[in-house]
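ZP: hey, is the S-adenosylmethionine complex queued? I don't see it on the tracker
AM: it wasn't, my bad. submitting now with these inputs:
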Amino acid sequence: MPYPDHLQQKVEQAWRSPDLEVLNELRQAQFVAHNIPLTRTEGTRPGEPLIAESPRTIAIHESLQRFAGPDLAGKTAVDLGCLEGGLSFELRRAGLEVLGVEGRAENYEKCLLVRAYYAAMGGMEFVHSDVRAFQPKQAFDVVVCSGLLYHLERPAAYIAQLARLTKPGGMLYLDTHVAPEDEGLRACAFAASLSPLKTETVEGVSIRYREYSEDVALPESSIDNSYSVWMDAASHLEVMFAAGFTRIFELNGYFGAGEQALKQRYCRRYFVALKP
Ligand SMILES: C[S@@+](CC[C@H](N)C(=O)[O-])C[C@H]1O[C@@H](n2cnc3c(N)ncnc32)[C@H](O)[C@@H]1O
């Protein structure tokens, strides 16, 4: 990964001389998804690959280099629905000034531990907020919306908010579920929780979507809505374009052979959208 030397040195400094009190707290915290390195040999989810090694993180790093880089110093990023702060940590390591936004207190507390552990690195802040209510004074060069959009009841309206959060010339990275077509429904791992396809017009744009039943008790789910809306792939493109993103790229090639079957099973897509 193209980590700037001065930041990598700060990371390694934390590994060499860790804050033992915070390290102990991190060891006791139950991380549910993000395996963030704590030392050269230990992470927040022992036995799992580090978040830096996951194909979706590599896709983000490469997109940053292509569309926002190569020098990210001084540029800003927001990581929406940041869970345990793993992607925020990776964005910071890549050189961005990062703000993670998380609506669930138990997740936010873990983000604060990660921030405290890597305090010497600086440039990584977190806020405990519902993303729907998050109205920062300034927009960001990079907006990361990963694993969040499909937890909202009004994703089309939220894409308009994503455009407002993105500076002119900035990029949105969107990693999300899309509603499968009827012929793809049986292959979809979430078929049992999805409604039939529906159609609606939102601010002049016709969208097709399925409703999805959410279990709000899970740490990675929506924070209060028990159903959310998954738009189909074409609707995402139309809504992003209507919101002001004029170039939209879809990413493939990070999961090797069988990638299309995997994406069909998990109804997952990765987009980079640019604002002029
Ligand atoms: C599936 S996880 C994705 C985590 C991370 N972005 C990633 O890609 O690994 C969804 C996260 O969004 C948070 N979340 C869901 N709805 C939210 C909302 N309305 N406001 C803030 N956070 C929310 C959840 O608490 C959870 O941490």
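AM: back. The chain has a mean pLDDT of 97.
ZP: great, adding it to the tracker
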